[in-house]
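Possible race condition, two jobs.
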Amino acid sequence: MSDDLYERTRQSWEDIWSQASVEAELEVMDQRRTWETLGVYPQYLSREGIILEAGCGLGTVIIKLREMGLRVIGLDYAERALRTARAYDPTLPLQVGDVHALPYRSASLHGYLSFGVLEHFEHGMGPALREANRVLVSGGTLVLTIPYPNVVHRLVHWKRRLLGQGTLASEDFYESTYTQHQLIAEVQRAGFEVVLVRPTSHSFTLWGLGWPFRAKGYYRTTWLADALGAILRRIAPWPFNFTTLLIARKARNLTE
């Protein structure tokens, strides 16, 4: 990714977070689809060491995990988001920084969390994953959520081709999607051993189709989306997967 594109991506997130609020984000944290991940990964995290959320935004994940008794710190390159988070809770341990050059010693953290972050870099997730490996202790836990090329995503791209719009050009880059096998391969190349891979948030895949799956409010799904999403989760888990949850450990035989 060029320096110019990287800076424009950072500025885009500054603009996105300027229109959000901690209160609204916390409401999302209480929705059913959020607990498809939040109800799973905390049991894999250390209760003694420090855990980093890399790309923490407004810090709502940190707030929830601290309530669970976990020692979590946050880092983001969007300073405006961190200021908003600190205005809500001045005790939040937050730091401005880049996920590709973390300001932490090697083998100093017990957990690394990344929720909907690494797909936004055009050069791919490899460099950030290798940096995550560097700062984790041997056996430390990596938790990722990454968008999947589901049915709706493929329909959008098919529609673009049909309308002669082609694929997204470099200057329009927003995010990449990863299949289950692509994601596992990326994580393993960075020196991790995969523990769990799970499709989640099927109701939000339906949200992408618009009415009648969008409820009033901040990214809220309707009862219909939730009901159909629960069915799709059982009968077609991967085709309608919105976000893949992956949990891995830093391989213990790597030199730190």
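Job #2 (started ~2 s after job #1):
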Amino acid sequence: MKTLAVVQHTSAEYLGLLEDHLEGRRIRFRYARPFATGGRVPGPDGLHDGLVLLGGGPWGSAGVRNVPTLAQEVALTQAALDKGLPVLGIGLGAQILAIAAGGGSSPSPLEFSVSEAERTATDALAGYLPQRFPLVVYGRDRPEPPQTARILARDREGRPAVFQVGTNALGFTGHPGTKAAIVEDLIMEFDEGPADPAANLARLRTLQRSIEDALVPIMTGVVRVLALMD
């Protein structure tokens, strides 16, 4: 059985629906919560068999409101990439992956949006990425993948929604396994929140089944690309 180190940036945001897909494949995960442990980030020896970096709510990486452990997490991600370990970055985690891989991040206001992404190639995620799938973004700033990255999907504005670095590192600008409860808890956890989120929360609730359905092939592709069952 493989074990993934999961870095959590807020109390509210966790793996969500991804947990069931990992547990169903007997892939274990261990959460690290630097915000609750005095800023302690796992060292390279704590990477286990791979690294997952979650979203950060209002925390970002482009200078406006950086997550306090940004430098340590970039170094940890670089260590994972150097070791050839799989990396999955979601939201803020995708920004950290982009920075660690030689790209960067760009400033963007705190955003809560519920829209759709479209894949750029039929073989994206080993052919399992749906042509269109729900894209739920809650966070600040955006990843700027390195030129060597492959863009697997784009949002309605043409920005990267899913990208791949090397053979076994993936970044998602939105949380593919989110739940309405995660967003509700994020709004309550921080003083800073999106203006008038009610409409998007209502839309997110109506899309919950679509998110669950899209996650089935997405996680099949993620597990295949990251070689989590090899």
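The first strand starts at residue 3 and ends at 7.
Logs attached separately.
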